[in-house]
Write a structure and sequence with these properties.
By secondary structure, this protein is an alpha/beta fold. It has a five-stranded parallel beta sheet with strand order 4-3-2-1-5, with helices on both faces. Helices cover 35% and strands 14% of the residues. The termini are far apart. The protein has six helices and five strands; from the N terminus they run H-E-H-E-H-H-E-H-E-H-E. The N terminus is likely disordered. Strand 1, helix 2 and strand 2 form a beta-alpha-beta unit.
Length: 187
């Protein structure tokens, strides 16, 4: 075998070995689920998990969503994290009526709240977040946008999707809700 051919075969075997170590075992069907928010916030319930939520307790959380999506065509990862939180609590036996969740979108995440027409005008594609926002709201999650971030991004308030409330600000929303006993989960 020529030296070049030996080198190529050796490199290919080395890459194949490295790839096999980098792979994770495949999960069985049904390992991941999205029990409450269909298609979003995938979760897995481990066997005998510690620190399980009490199904009779009321959970109050405000999610401060401030980071933009990786690309305009991606669902905002922080919103998907909110969906995972809903899915986890419900899978743990907490009824939706005991989840008092508020999402406040601000900062670089402000375009997430645009209606489809204005998102399309800005990015050339439909807003990929609106379906998830609808699913979250159907589960009782309140979604609002920072009223200061809207003009800072040179948006008009009428461009915000009608499902989304316009709050005075992210800052006041977080502090007001914390004063009411909400835990802050910054995203």
């Amino acid at each position: 075998m020529s030296k070049l051919k030996t080198l190529v075969v050796g490199c290919a075997l080395s890459l194949a070995c490295a790839a096999s170590f980098a792979q994770t075992p495949s999960q069985p069907p049904g390992f991941w689920s999205t029990p409450t928010i269909p298609g979003y916030g995938r979760m897995h319930m481990p066997d005998s998990p510690a620190y399980m939520p009490d199904p009779s307790h009321i959970y109050k959380i405000v999610f401060a969503v401030t980071q933009a999506s990786r690309t305009p065509s991606d669902v905002n990862g922080a919103l998907d994290h909110v969906a995972r939180t809903v899915n986890l609590y419900v899978a743990a036996g907490v009824p939706l009526k005991n989840l008092k969740f508020v999402v406040i979108v601000g900062g670089a995440a402000a375009p997430t709240a645009l209606d489809d027409a204005h998102y399309r005008a800005k990015f050339g594609i439909p807003n990929p977040n609106l379906q998830l926002i609808s699913e979250l709201e159907q589960a009782g999650v309140d979604v609002a946008v920072c009223g200061q971030a809207v003009p800072e991004h040179h948006f008009d308030y009428t461009w915000i999707d009608p499902k989304i409330k316009v709050a005075l600000s992210e800052l006041t929303t977080v502090t007001v809700l914390q004063q009411q006993g909400y835990a802050l989960l910054p995203q």
